[in-house]
Design a protein that fits this description.
binds guanosine-5'-triphosphate; Ribonucleotide Reductase Protein R1, domain 1; OB fold (Dihydrolipoamide Acetyltransferase, E2P); about 20% helix; 13 strands; Rossmann fold; about 325 residues; binds zinc ion; binds magnesium ion; single chain; alpha/beta
């Protein structure tokens, strides 16, 4: 038993958790009721302490969640090294707001982002324009499609020995790519609806698969993500736009918000118009939020006690 604890949660569905021990063996656990009272939710990626439960259906019981180095609300996952922000280059139309928000959250919380542009095999794809817009941010960009073996190799190389998750809209090809990286069908994939041009939410839960010395997680697609949910404030936003931050010391006034102030250097610089418009929109929205109305950080290094007042999902 001591060999199995602490174990990592690799999947949690309906109050039942699949755990992987240090030695790679798996087991099924329930969580003690106390977590709900504490406002804690055992989350995929968590390390947990367990004891035998005596229940043959759920042989282990989770007693304690060990401190997290980070956690995301969407996708719901903890202790990530890297996030593959998956953006379709066509159908479904890329959601750049979502991509920018995820990039911001990653950079603020020491999760390395990889921008993965899928469906580059389809006609009229926007892969070149997307890559051009994001290159100045410095993010690692990988373009891929099911026949592009070289892109799969470079992703496998980037993922070695790390805990990595996919994130992005439904239908962008997260599960397709995960299957390609494994070389076997691990996850079901779904069509994109012709009528509404959206995915069908084929993946319904987060699941971590052992991969190349670490883990690779498939996650359900999502569209909405509000920066304040992740504790992002107006001044934090620049961290999500390194190409803006790099020239902000040339603005006439310190603390310039780059919203058209006198002497703002961003007005003279060449910033991708889409990126700049989204920065300005988010900054305006975030600056309207009064500090006391911000929810607690939901992604941050946790104190050992891990007490927090908010439940997720
Ligand atoms: N042509 C082409 N089709 C792709 C590519 N990647 C995924 N698809 C197709 O897009 C559809 C959606 O792919 P999924 O892998 O299910 O998408 P997902 O991101 O996992 O979606 P959810 O699980 O709903 O979040 C499927 O029909 C895939 O075959 C690609 O690079 N090129
Ligand atoms: Mg999927
Ligand atoms: Zn400025």
């Amino acid at each position: 038993m001591s060999d199995f604890s602490p174990a990592r949660i690799i999947k949690g569905v309906g109050g039942q958790y699949v755990l992987a021990g240090q030695d790679g063996t798996t087991g099924v656990a329930s969580a003690r009721g106390l977590f709900r009272k504490d406002g804690q939710t055992p989350t995929p990626g968590d390390f947990v302490e367990v004891i035998p439960s005596g229940d043959p259906d759920n042989p282990w019981r989770i007693l304690k969640i060990l401190p997290r180095k980070n956690e995301l609300v969407r996708p719901t996952i903890a202790n990530l090294d890297c996030l593959i922000i998956t953006l379709s280059s066509t159908d479904p139309a890329p959601d750049f707001q979502l991509a920018d928000k995820l990039l911001t959250v990653c950079w603020l919380h020491q999760i390395e982002p990889i921008l993965c542009i899928t469906k580059t095999d389809l006609p009229d794809n926007q892969a070149d324009q997307i890559a051009q817009a994001y290159k100045p941010s410095g993010v690692t960009i990988v373009r891929t499609n099911p026949d592009d073996g070289a892109s799969h190799d470079s992703l496998r190389h980037l993922l070695k020995d790390r805990v990595v998750s996919f994130a992005g809209q439904s239908g962008v090809g997260k599960s397709t790519l995960l299957n390609q990286l494994f070389g076997v069908e691990k996850m079901e994939t779904g069509e994109v609806s012709d009528r509404i041009g959206r995915g069908r939410h084929t993946t319904r839960h987060v699941e971590l698969f052992p991969f190349s010395g670490g883990y690779l997680a498939d996650t359900p697609g999502f569209t909405s993500l509000e920066l304040p949910e992740f504790g992002v404030t107006g001044p934090d936003l620049e961290t999500g736009y390194p190409e803006i931050k790099a020239i902000s010391d040339q603005c006439r006034f310190t603390g310039c918000r780059h919203l058209g102030e006198l002497g703002c250097a961003i007005d003279r610089a060449t910033i991708d118009p889409g990126r700049l418009a989204r920065y300005r929109q988010f900054r305006t929205e975030l600056d309207q939020i009064k500090p006391y109305s911000q929810p607690r950080n939901t992604i941050q290094a946790k104190s050992p006690s891990q007490t927090r007042g908010r439940t997720r999902r």
